[in-house]
Amino acid sequence: MWVRSNDRPVTSVLPEPSWGRVLATTVKLWLLRRPTARRWLLAAAFLALAVVAAAALLVSGVFTQTADRAGRVRAPADTGQGTPLAAQQEAVAWIAGQVSNAAMVGCYAGMCAALQAQGVPAGRLVPLQPGTAGPPRADVVVTSASAGRQFADRYAPALIASFGSGRSRIEVRATEPGGAVAYRAALQTDLGARKSAGAQLLRNRHLRFTPAAAAQLLAGQVDSRLLATLAVVSSQYQFRVTSFSDAAPGAQVPLRQMTISADRTADLAAALAMVRAQNPPYLPAHAAIVRLDTGQTALSIEFAAPSPLGLLTPVLTVQREVK
Fold it and tell me: Mean pLDDT over residues 67-74, rounded?
């Protein structure tokens, strides 16, 4: 039985082995041996493996390391809306390290300045003005108790992280053009799809899970992108899922990070190549072969926030139609 930790289990990143030949062999074997059953796992694998062979030639070195930027915030001692610097620093470091590089971030003046000082490009920032009435042109909105809460509750109902408490509390929220009612409906549908997919993965003979990880799957707590990734990497190799985890403080959101191990390092290298060859939204923010605190070699995969809704629903609908 493996020990699960909600903390990142990585102590060091190992040099990556050459994987070009491994990828070519993996894709060839997958095409030769794929099952004929049209289950959602196979459908997800097709979605995520599209143009793998071509993309594999381009993905080497594409991951930009942003998670270690904490501590470099040069911002005013106040955000301009009465938010203390400590909560602002935590929020800024989290956004820079965890939010997708493709996401537009809506923010008020002081927070926008702090985010830009942290390295978030100005082109990704959408300044919000007090009294803004319409929906923002942003994917993520940063608000505080003293600024923009009603606006956020209406147009950004998905809480993905929070920092501080009381009037110093800063919230990071994902937007939903349809508003709070549409978001709640989409969330319930997505939760059901994640539960169904998780139950099917537990029956996959190429995958083993710790009791804690199995419980998280059945509860629908795992990000849809991780579920699809497991379907892909288990199409040829056997893996042990040692943990699911997340780095989102103050919010109950799908778990976006996992660590998997295998009997052979070559299998981890092949899985790493497959993962890095995916197209968005299945391309992770970080993926690397690492050494755990226990000394075991493993593959760590992490997707950026926010977790998208609805990825699995079309696949499950196709499955029902072909039965």
Answer: 32
Query: For 16-44, how does the pLDDT look when each residue is reduced to its tens digit (9 = 90+)?
Result: 433 333 333 333 443 444 443 333 443 34
Helices (H), 166-302: 179-202, 211-218, 224-233, 265-276
* Pairing relationship of beta strands 140-144 and 105-107 according to DSSP bridges: parallel
State whether 219 and 258 are in the same domain: yes
- Picking from 94, 95, 98, 104, the residue whose alpha carbon sits closest to that of residue 125 is 104
Backbone angles phi, psi at 104, to 5 degrees: -80, 135
Rounded-to-integer distance, Cα 51 and Cα 223, Å? 23
User: Which burial class, exposed, middle or buried, applies to 143 when counting CB atoms under 10 A from its CB (0-12, 13-18, 19+)?
Assistant: buried
Name the least confident of 118-132, 189-203, 210-224: 118-132
- DSSP SS3 for 139: coil
Q: What does the alpha-carbon distance between residue 158 and residue 235 come to, in Å, rounded to a whole number?
A: 33
198 and 161, same domain (yes or no): no
Q: Cβ distance 135 to 106 under 8 Å?
A: no
Residues 113-144: tens digit of each pLDDT:
999 999 999 999 999 887 776 778 999 999 88
Nearest to 310 by CA among 281, 276, 286, 287: 281
Same domain, 168 and 196: no
Residue 53 structural domain: 10-63+189-322
Residue 212 in this model has a pLDDT that exceeds 50 = yes
Count: domains in the chain:
2
